[in-house]
Amino acid sequence: MALLPITPPAGIVKNGTDYSNKGRWVDGDLVRFENGFLKPIGGWTKLLATALDGEPIGMYAYADNVGNSILAIGTRQKVYVLYKETLTDITPSGFVNDTNNDPLGYGAFHWGVEDYGDARSQSGLPQRIGHFSFDNFGEDLVFCFSGDGKIYKWSPNSQPGGTADTIGTAVTNAPVGNLALVVTNERHLVAIGSASDPRKIAWSDREDRNTWTSKATNSAGDLQIPTSGRALYAVKFKQDVIIFSDTGISRMYYTGNPFIYGIADAGTNCKAVGRKVIVSTGSFMAWMGENSFFVYDGQVREIACEVHDFVFDNLNVLGRASSWGGHNSNFNEIWWGFPVGDGQYTPNRYVIWNYRENTWSIGSLDRGCWIDQGVFDFPIAGDSSGFIYEHESTSLANSPSLGSAVPFCTSGPIEIGNGDRFVQCNQIVPDEEANTLPGVTISFKGKFTPLGSETDFGSFTFENDGYTDARFSARQVQMTVTGGVTQDFQVGNIRLDLKTRGKR
Prior knowledge:
With 504 residues, this protein is mainly β. Helices cover 1% and strands 42% of the residues. The strands form ten sheets. Strands 2, 33, 34, 36, 37 and 39 form a six-stranded antiparallel beta sheet that branches. It starts with a strand and ends with a strand.
């Protein structure tokens, strides 16, 4: 027989059964697909040597007026800034944090479960985790935490002789009881769910964050979103502000005098599961909904997702508000993290959508928030222990808390025999990318029928010349490719040198 190509098309498929996804990749971890090739994701290093107080649940990066990078981090306990390589706790006086927002408690599960009077080990109540919104007003940081409701500012005071603020302070005259904020392109500071009104959007005077009362002499104002639901968060997108509610999204747009801003419905039945899952790439926005992924580029569309079942069949809905999304622009990827497992309220699984090639990957990772590279050289993410990491900055071998995990990818069934005959494999032959493969192993599970017993074959290690001797017989195989954590491997088309044998 001629050499038989067996490498599945790029992307992992988790919808349906493994057999229904025959000839495709069906499982994996710590891998991505780039230009059609299977590759490991990059590793990570600690940006800060010590953990923060509390789990990071929001981050924002920008530069001051003289080009110094600033990283703002909100945890469930504190607010920090990393400025000029110094980490400072800028938690405002009287700040209401998220420490008491835990669904566990006495009687917080089904009747008769566990002992009466004992705190529950798991909950039947959703975790109502708060969310941070950060932005910059010039070089000043402005932020709001939904559980606190106030709008704060912190200034680096980068002018010669200036000294950075020691803590965040409330913005003068700003409304309270807010859920989120954003700074528009026109330099208005906007409060979402302002003054505890679930549909009210209020904004300050242009270039003046301290003036919020509308007068004929200023451009401050407010309006109501056109929905029966509540405004929850907002994201800048091109020239507009997209407001997310618990029913859909609205588009807030600049009109100029006399009304300053208008608002229009932009999509329904597309609610995001939380503030952190909304990702803007510049040319479009994408987010994780309650049972689908969505994209917006002027209109809302559902993303065809080949790992839908992996996400939404396993998502812990009680902890879904902790889910997050992030752009990894250097690889044309959007990452989403989400919690899986009873009592799991912090994200421990992820999916990657390569939007240029429309492929998906999956894996396990403890992360709670993410921001893209730009101001900083690498994407930055935080884990549930309070550590902050720079991703794509090293090999997996140098990555803290990796444990025993290794990059791998497993296929569904691949038919290698014809009709009632089985075949013998004599050699495994990769394509011209063989120079990236030494040390990569390949193993097979073989069957003679779909319902027959499995036999393990391998593992086989690719040699420097790219050829690997192998001896096994089957009609159908399931293939697993495993790479070492020290390797930047690239798997192209793998072929099998087969010889037809007799009937079983």
